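Handoff note, outgoing to incoming analyst
You'll be picking up this chain. Sequence as last confirmed:
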Amino acid sequence: MAKKAEYNYKSLQSEYGKMPPQAVDLEEAILGALMLEKDAYIEVSDFLRPECFYKEAHQKIYKAIQTLSINSEPVDILTVGEELKREGLLDEIGGPYYLSQLTSKVASAAHIEYHARIVVQKYIQRELIRVCTDIQNKAYDDASDVADLVDLAQKSVFEIAEGNIKKETTAINVLIDEALKGIEAAGKRADGLSGVPSGFSALDEVTSGWQPSDLIIIAARPSMGKTAFVLSMTRNMAVNFNQPVAIFSLEMSSVQLVNRLIASETELGSEKIRNGRLSDEDWQQLHAKIKALIKAPIYVDDTPSLSIFELRAKCRRLQQRYGIKVLIIDYLQLMTAGIDMRGNREQEVSMISRQLKIIAKELNIPVIALSQLNRGVEQRTGDAKKPMLADLRESGAIEQDADMVLFIHRPERYGIMQDSQGNDLRGIADIIIAKHRNGAVGEIQLRFRNELAQFCDLETTSPFDNPFAGVKTVTLESKMNDDVPRQLPPLDTGFQEGGKNFETNPFNGGSAPF
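Most recent structure output, in case you need it:
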């Protein structure tokens, strides 16, 4: 009789239409098991939510079980019934009789996690159907903006994935084994770095390279050279170290960006590149020197008003296709959340910075985002003009989400040509490490060649004159590498490097003095 009923049910389903994906029998087994064994809820609590249940009555029963567990009260048929009665829902779910029926459908909670994951899978299928149906209906509406529709589709699917696909817990012995392999790999490298080298030896000495899954914020006031800094760094990473780099340029077109790279690489200057007034000798120099750039694994995207959901989809494709090791965004404040934040720009920037951190973790690569500073810097004088964490524009969430925050400060831009010791500051750029979650905070100095919009180490006229430029595993030479031991001092002490003061701060760089 049961088989006949099942056959008739399926016949009706195929004759009158499709039924949403569901597993009602497993829902009943899960709820019954939860009321039979007190520890069963722990097995499913981290991924099973009330909305995952297909039947509304089952959602209400599971909510009651959740409430009891949160309040550390026992979960059984009587306590669940009392909780539902207190909320006025007992009759709606079928009364005490229905609860007793649920407990009779299962003998134990032995397979509750397996059953729960099937129920979650059915829920994800229903959500995908709902989202696709909604998008399909809007797509038929001529009044719908196509760009908004694409953003909606990306956001909706992204939310389904974020909310339901959870990473499993990993035992510490596995993590220690992975960490030891990383330490061994770093020890075998000639440069001793564990991350992607920036090509600036003084900076790499402090950071050990840009670390996987880190969100790095590089901020400065306009005309301080944010874009020039990341372009010089991109050239170093891609040409010297053969690391694939993706650049998302929201401010400049891809051709403008490449022109700046060409001007810096060929040392012809941006003026000549822009107006095209090159002599025969200049043309020969250009063609000879851009060969390294042509072969470099650099990928540029200049999509304007890029949403965080578009970025995530593009980055996934870039990693699958080209194996990108570094992601650079120029710059953060030009991105959009892709959803209506009702005019609250601070919340939008907070969401963007948080999602950038998620992308860094998901792809396991460093994400470097440029950011603007507010005008407070301009109102200060002397050394006080050096940027601080409080100067980050539009949102404190940027500071919170970032693993590292670096500021670029060029005193000569404010007419400061000498420091307090009388040292010449023309062409000098201070790179201020204001937050470093896993290392030291402090300052290092680089040289800025204004005519080429190019950053390089103090000890070299140009980073491209380095005799080791073609060696993929050797950083640019610096006297700091010979004079300073690589091991940082104990947590409660500071140290000096290259004439600058540092303090170790492995937890939360914050605004510690340096």
